[in-house]
Specification:
single chain; 409 residues; alpha/beta; six-stranded mixed β-sheet; 19 strands; 22% strand
Length: 409
């Protein structure tokens, strides 16, 4: 089967990394599903030799992946704090007030918009996962349970709804039709408005071996150069960029209409473009080196688990994130090596990880079973989790992360 680049249409033939066959990373199972057939799909990532977009083909539609979603942002204390800091910074920098409107695309459970609402600023969320949108509406955050694109943007503008601040955090990678999505952003942005978009930075993924962030709901893996060019093609100018620690290293870009001269392009834009060029992101050979590092991480994790078993040590997991499902399925880790994992989300507790069928319990299970090692699957939250679970030190327990390499602490 031939696949075409979702930006420039060029045929995709160059492999970035092939992680084999895996289930959808957020397709958690109930007990009565364990004996049924479970679909697996290729997790084969390619890079376009024309525009250098790293991407997965659309093997399952967004509606199949996102209409019911298991990730609720409000269960992460660090992510709630991230949203609070963002709201305060945007209100101060752009002078937002009661006459302003903030719209967030992929607004999840309203974790971010609540901070604007509490400051008396009008808000609107757009969230395709109906169960998550219901939670946001119940919390007093008006939220549309819709997929976003040009059609919805035109509907909203026809009702005189436009955004003075338009936000999209960790959504761009989830969009198979990038032109429709970015075109919709341009339409919905008010004259003189500002657009901010956050996404994991491909450069950090490559340098820090974050291959577990690859799964089927992430259709694209984005460099700064690719996003700047994509936005320019829709009359949007990126005028500033910030590097963030979230999700292992993300970018927050600031964009405006190309014809709006109120916000001059800041030096950091050219500086980051030059840094990506120096790191080789304009050369196809750079992308071809990633797969060997991934194989090394698989070997390290399996060696650790085999060694722990040979020494009679027990290992449990912490977290049931999508990235953990990529890691465990690619490495072939099942419940014989990882008997269970725990998660704070009641939505996941009592269910099983896709593919591996590892059971998910509440965090208290760790203290009941007292494992020798706790493998933190959402490694980007390692400090937050280590603080929450610090009591494992009472019996000499240690934490482990596998990305970018095996580390115990």
């Amino acid at each position: 089967m031939r696949f075409a680049c979702r930006i420039c249409g060029r045929a995709l033939t160059y492999t970035f990394v092939d992680l084999g066959m895996t289930p959808l990373a957020n397709s958690y199972l109930d007990a009565d599903q364990l004996d049924a057939m479970e679909p697996f799909y290729p997790l084969h990532v390619r890079v376009c030799e024309g525009c250098f977009l790293v991407q997965l083909p659309e093997l399952r539609s967004p509606a199949e992946i996102f209409e019911e979603y298991v990730y609720f942002s409000s269960f992460s204390e660090s992510w709630l704090e991230h949203g609070r800091r963002y709201s305060e910074a945007m209100i101060e920098r752009f002078g937002l007030g009661p006459a302003s409107r903030v719209i967030e695309v992929a607004s999840n459970d309203g974790y971010l918009l609540r901070h604007f609402r509490d400051r008396g600023i009008g808000v609107l969320g757009i969230e395709p996962a109906r169960n998550v949108a219901e939670a946001a509406n119940a919390a007093g955050i008006p939220t549309l349970p819709r997929f976003f694109g040009v059609a919805l943007a035109r509907e909203l503008v026809a009702k005189s709804t436009r955004a003075d601040l338009l936000a999209g955090n960790n959504v761009l990678a989830h969009v198979p039709d990038l032109h429709d999505f970015v075109g919709g952003l341009e339409i919905l942005l008010a004259e003189g408005g500002v657009l901010t978009v956050e996404f994991p930075h491909l450069l950090r993924l490559m340098k820090e071996n974050q291959f577990d962030t690859i799964y089927h709901e992430h259709f694209s893996y984005l460099s700064f150069r690719v996003v700047v060019a994509l936005f320019a093609g829709h009359a949007l100018t990126v005028f500033d960029v910030e590097e963030l620690p979230t999700h292992g290293g993300s970018l927050r870009i600031f964009a405006r209409r190309a014809a709006d001269g109120r916000f001059p392009v800041r030096p950091g834009v050219a500086e980051l473009l030059a840094r990506e060029e120096a790191e080789g992101l304009g050369s196809i050979e750079t992308y071809g080196k990633f797969e060997a590092r991934v194989a090394g991480t698989k070997a390290q994790l399996l060696e650790f688990l085999l060694d722990a078993r040979s020494r009679g040590k027990s290992v449990a997991g912490y977290g049931a994130p999508a990235k953990g499902n990529t890691l465990l399925n690619f490495c072939g880790v099942r419940s014989d090596f990882l008997p269970f994992t725990v998660d704070r989300s009641p939505y996941k507790q009592g269910r099983f990880l896709p593919g591996t069928h590892i059971p998910i319990y509440p965090p208290e299970r760790i203290f009941e079973t007292r494992p020798d090692y706790v493998l933190i699957l959402p490694w980007n939250l390692r400090e937050e989790i280590a603080e929450q679970m610090s009591r494992i030190g009472e019996w000499g327990g240690k934490f482990v992360v596998a990305i970018p390499r095996i580390q115990t602490f």
